[in-house]
Amino acid sequence: MNRYGIDVWGGKRFDIRNGEVVVNHKSKPSIIDIVSRVREDGLSGPLLIRFPHLIESQISLMYDTFTEVQNEFKYKGGFNAVFPLKVNQYPGFVKNLVEKGKKYNYGLEAGSKAELLLAMTYNNANAPITVNGFKDNEMIVLGFLAAKMGQNITLTIEGINELESIVENIKNFDGVVPNIGLRIRLHSSGIGIWAKSGGINSKFGLTSLELITAIDILKKHNLLEYFTMIHFHIGSQIEDIAPLKKALREAGNIFAELKKMGANALRAINLGGGLAVEYSQNENRYHRNYSLKEYASDVIYLLQDISKRKDVKEPDIFIESGRYVAASHAVLVTPVLELFSKDYSEKALRLDKKNPPLVKELYDLYKDMNGKNALEFLHDGIDHMESLLTLFDLGYIDIEDRSNTEILVNLIIKKALYLLKDKNHNELLSIQDRVQERYLLNFSIFQSLPDNWGLGQNFPVMPLDRLDEKNQRSASLWDITCDSDGEISFDIKNPLFLHDVNLDEEDYFLGFFLVGAYQETMGMEHNLFAHPTELSVEISDEGYEIKNIIKSKSIIEILKNIEYNEGEIRSILYDKVKKSKLVAEDKKSRVCEMINTFLNDNSYLKTDIIQPNFFD
Ligand SMILES: *Cc1c(COP(=O)(O)O)cnc(C)c1O
Questions:
Q1: How far away, in angstroms, is 110 Cα from ligand 1 center?
Q2: Residue 448's closest CA among 325, 567, 530?
Q3: What is the pLDDT of residues 65-124, one digit of tens each?
Q4: Is any ligand 1 atom within 6 A of the Cβ of residue 320?
Q5: Which CATH superfamily is 6-50+331-336+434-550 part of?
Q6: Which of 26, 70, 78, 258 could form a disulfide with 263 if both were Cys (CB 3.0 to 4.6 A apart)?
Q7: Residue 273 Cβ contacting ligand 1 at under 6 Å
Q8: Where are the domains of the chain?
Q9: 183 lines ligand 1 (CB under 6 A)
């Protein structure tokens, strides 16, 4: 049975039972069952399903692992974590996160004024807030206001001008000052596609000279008592632990040096984010070369070692890992709308006496193919197709024979795959990319998997049922945008095999996993496809409960969001109906009603057929 790497990327969160993907928690519901229940209520199109228990388990794992390692090493500093809001700001996620994080005093990180206001609203009382990114005076004022409201906030300074802005604001807030952090610029850089966050040429952080200047300014204005944290972030999805260790050594020594310069209140090192998620769908190839336990051990061992050697107190540790906490909680379910080759049936052939010999030969290959010659005949069939297509380009064969060619080759492929079904995929792999089936999925890659489009990031994908049946179609996945980039093509190094299904008789759904980090707000409304319908599923010992369904935005809402005027759109459309001589007077209001129904519905495709009933 093909497990689609679920044991690699799933990390025991999901499992397979009776041929269906199940959520491995309490009553272990199957995802396809959840999907059927939601669709019974008339919600078609793609679904984003959130599992709050997976937010909770990631938070617990993070805190418990660090606490365990701290105890093991008898580490004296504390451990704190904040969730970076940029990773997922959706209420369906954030509200769950804040609730599940309460017992750990889990805080929030903000990188913009909007995120800071969000953090100030929803953060648990006393849980830390850290603020990174470029700040204007307003953002700094917001930081002071948060401090005034009694929030435990640290403003991380990215440049000397931000520090000057803090100094200027002090007189306005009667001595209530937010904690100050300094972002340090490291020589060691991150790796991978997000490497720009670290290194001497990175976008962020103070150089050694700027750090010295900052300490002078803090001293001069009696602010050293508020300087509590240094911060760095070497990039997202750190798959190799080595650069992190290097960064830690650098940061640990900077921490000790700053303390020696008189930074007495300095007590914390904030490591930023970067804990990697295992996205690999290949049992033989892991992307990440460390575990959370190893990460925690390296951090604690190195900071303890430096503290001992430099004779400073062991720092409190802050981490801002977001991807690691958020990725697994959301699953995107996409209905398969069509298999492109479904129309290639024998009935559609138009064979007559004048067919070119190669077409006749193709037909014979199809008819005479058996288990022994299948692979050979398949090769021959593909060669014949190429010759025939060339003949068409040169004007020697007509469009009917072009069609016969396409149909016959598809029939040959299907028959060969059936005859060879007991062979393993490797034997077929050499030809798989030439015989692939295209699956049309009801979703937008631009909206729901922007990192796949922009960065080539792979997300684990698999069918939600039939996992005990043979899957033999090499698949490329197409979304419903009319953009040629809206495709996940078949990759011979990472092949995806799906089932041959008859969609007239049965539904077929694919699940994309680990989509809970970064994909939602970064998704774009290309072709005006909006965020899919979302819901949360709370699983208990007895079953599960579907909560917080938020339907995908209607077409009129999408248009309003890009500043069209709803009234104007309606009045122009209705006016055109009224003026049309082609619509009978007594049908005009019905036509307007239908247009209204479309405006109020979302843009995803429907498979049910609506009957206009104009003439009843
Ligand atoms: C993006 C970012 C994070 C989160 O990174 P992950 O890879 O999602 O853990 C944390 N801190 C800062 C400063 C960031 O910019």
A1: 10
A2: 530
A3: 999 999 999 999 999 999 999 999 999 999 999 999 999 999 999 999 999 999 999 999
A4: yes
A5: Lyase, Ornithine Decarboxylase; Chain A, domain 1 (2.40.37.10)
A6: 258
A7: yes
A8: 6-50+331-336+434-550, 128-320, 346-432, 564-600
A9: no
Tokens of 417: 């795959």
**Considering the domain 346-432 in this protein, what is its CATH number?**
1.20.58.930
d(CA 164, CA 173): 15
Cβ–ligand 1 distance for 10 under 6 Å, the answer no
336 three-class SS: strand
Among left, alpha and beta (phi > 0; psi -120 to 50; other), residue 514 is left
Q: Answer yes or no: is the C-beta of 236 below 6 A from any ligand 1 atom.
A: yes
Digit-coded pLDDT (tens) for 322-375: 999 999 999 999 999 999 887 788 888 998 878 899 999 999 999 999 989 998
133 lines ligand 1 (CB under 6 A): no
The residue type found at 524 is M
Does residue 233 have its Cβ closer than 6 Å to ligand 1? yes
Tell me if 506 sits within 8 A of 465, measured CB to CB. Answer: no
User: Helix, strand, or coil here: 439?
Assistant: strand
- % helix / strand / coil in the chain, to the nearest 5? 45, 15, 40
State how far the Cα of 435 lies from the Cα of 402, in Å rounded to an integer: 17
The SS3 assignment for 427 reads helix
d(CA 497, CA 491): 11
Kind of pairing, strands 14-17 and 20-23? antiparallel
pLDDT at 460 over 90: yes
Q: What is the mean pLDDT of the chain?
A: 93
Residue entry with tokens 């999901």 = 14
Amino acid, res. 594: M
The two structure tokens encoding residue 59 = 């938070």
Q: Which atom of ligand 1 is nearest to the CA of 321?
A: 9
For residue 426, CA distances in Å to 179, 243, 422, 430, 474 come to: 59, 36, 12, 8, 12
Query: Which ligand 1 atom is nearest residue 326's CA?
Result: 8
Question: Which stretch of DSSP H or E encloses residue 544?
Answer: strand 544-550
Cβ–Cβ < 8 Å for 483, 528: no
Q: Does residue 583 carry a pLDDT above 90?
A: yes
* Structure tokens given for 502: 């008859």
Total number of residues shown for the chain: 616
Which among 190, 180, 178 has a CA at the least distance from the CA of 141? 178
Whose structure tokens read 């953090």?
119
Ligand 1 contact via 323 beta carbon (within 6 Å): yes
Query: What is the average per-residue pLDDT within 29-49?
Result: 96
Quote the ligand 1 centre to 275 CA distance (angstroms).
9
For the segment 203-249, what is each residue's pLDDT rounded down to a tens digit? 678 999 999 999 999 999 999 999 999 999 999 999 999 999 999 99
Q: Is residue 348 helix, strand or coil? A: helix
Q: Does domain 128-320 have CATH number 3.20.20.80?
A: no
- 295, 321, 455, 518: which to mutate for ligand 1, most atoms within 8 A of CB? 321
Could you give the angle at which helices 357-368 and 399-419 cross, rounded to 10 degrees?
Answer: 20
Atom of ligand 1 nearest to the CA of 235: 7
**H-type alpha helices, 186-291:** 208-220, 242-260
